[in-house]
Structure formats: C-alpha cells, structure tokens
Task: structure prediction
Amino acid sequence: MLYKKYLILITGLLLNLPVNASDPQIHMLVDTCIACHGTDGSSVGSATPNIANMREKLFIKAMQDMKSGERPSTVMKVIATGYTDNEIKIMAQFFSQQQAIPHRQNFDVEKAKKGRELHNLYCNGCHKIEGRTQLLSNNLAGQQMLYLRHRLTEFINDADPTISPLMKNALKHFIDNNSQESLDDLVHYYASLGGK
Ligand code: HEC
Ligand code: HEC
Result:
C-alpha cells in the first residue's frame, strides 16, 4: 500500500494540499531536523530558532541562502547542502503547517513593556503580532532570545548580505531614532509572548 501513500503525497503537492504529517517521506526528510528544531519545528536549544509555522517562501529562501553560504550559519550550511530544491520545498510546506510553540523564557517586565511600544511603532507593520498575522516574517513571538540577539547583531554588523532591504531599512530607522541597546527591549517583549 506504500505506492498509494506516495500517490497521495504527490497529488497533494500538485494540488497544494496540506502535506500529510504521517507520511513516511516527510519523516525521512525532517528526522534530521528534530534533534535541534524539535519534532514539529519548535526548537530545543536556545541558539536554535523555532521554524514551525514559518512562511514557506522565507523558509525556502533561508535554506537556499544558507546552502550557498551567502547567509552565515554555524551548522545549517552543511545540513542544507544535503537537500535538493524539491526536498526543501516539501519541508517548507510541512513546517509552515506546524503550530509554533512559543518558548517560555525569563524576561524583564519593564523592558518587555518598553519593547511592546517600540514593536508597535517600528516593527508591527511587517511583523504583526497581536493581530497574529505575521505577514513577512514570523516567529518573533516566543522565539529564542539568544537566537534573536544573534540574528539582530548579524543584521547590524552587515554580516548577512541576503537580508531583505525592507528589514535592513527598518532596523536602520529604528537605531537612528532609538539606540542599539533598546533593541534588547524588543527581545524581552518577544520573550514575554512565550508560554506562561
Ligand atoms: C545541529 C542542530 C541543527 C539541525 C540538525 C538542524 N538545524 Fe536548522 N538551525 C540550527 C541553527 C543553530 C540555526 C541558526 C543558523 C545557524 O547558526 O546555523 C538554524 C536555522 C535554521 C533555519 C533558519 C530559520 C530562520 O528563522 O531564518 C531554517 C529554515 C532551518 N534551520 C531549517 C532546518 C531544517 C529543515 C533542518 C533539517 C533538515 C534543520 N534545520 C536541522 C540548528 C540545526
Ligand atoms: C518593512 C518591513 C519590516 C519591518 C518594519 C521590520 N522588519 Fe524584520 N524582517 C522583515 C523581513 C522581510 C524579514 C525577512 C528577512 C529575510 O530573511 O530576508 C525580517 C526578518 C526579521 C528577523 C529575522 C527572523 C529570523 O528568524 O531570522 C528579525 C529578528 C526581525 N526581522 C526583527 C525586526 C524588528 C525587531 C523590527 C523592528 C525594529 C523589524 N524586524 C521591522 C521585514 C521588516
């Protein structure tokens, strides 16, 4: 009956139907990711981002940019190199359909309060959170603080040439009007949206 399962998977992909999470091919592909990103994309370690519910397009772009080495990464270049374009597409569809589990982390209440205001002024336009449709980039709510700090530092230091100009300009605008330190208020705000 295995062929039938593959037939269903292939038809599903052609029609853009949800990928069947119990399908063995999906499991073969994402098994490698589990140790770090958890079974359904909600990560285990603090330096590893949640990838559950990530927009398909951003997922594909991130994987391709890390595979080519254009986007700096510690472990992901080697991992991404092991996958074809089509396999990356299948995984993008799978992870985009998983519900992200926001991490519960220690945060500073005062900083989170300031961060909320700053987010609404400078970031919400593209990363809506309270409306819950995080249009352009997702995964800020309950994302790992360590990862967020690392990623923002990469952006500030111009270490990632693949970053979208939208994000680059938004960050520049933020720092021109605030300070680099106040970025940490945002990190505390995103952490405050994690599990209680
Ligand atoms: C050994 C741990 C590890 C494994 C295994 C792993 N990842 Fe990662 N992943 C990371 C880390 C750490 C980062 C941050 C970038 C870096 O430093 O490599 C990351 C980043 C990512 C990102 C970028 C997320 C973003 O917000 O931009 C994607 C997408 C991703 N991984 C997908 C995968 C997929 C798909 C697999 C399985 C095929 C996988 N990862 C396996 C550790 C891992
Ligand atoms: C004009 C739209 C826009 C605004 C405003 C904006 N961003 Fe972004 N942001 C993006 C886009 C698009 C990406 C995806 C970047 C990419 O992969 O090329 C992104 C990515 C990110 C990431 C990386 C996510 C990951 O998993 O790697 C972080 C962190 C982030 N933004 C934080 C912020 C913060 C904090 C603010 C407010 C100071 C902000 N953004 C304002 C468009 C925006």
About this structure: Residues 7-16 have pLDDT under 50 and may be disordered. The two ends are 44 Å apart (CA to CA).
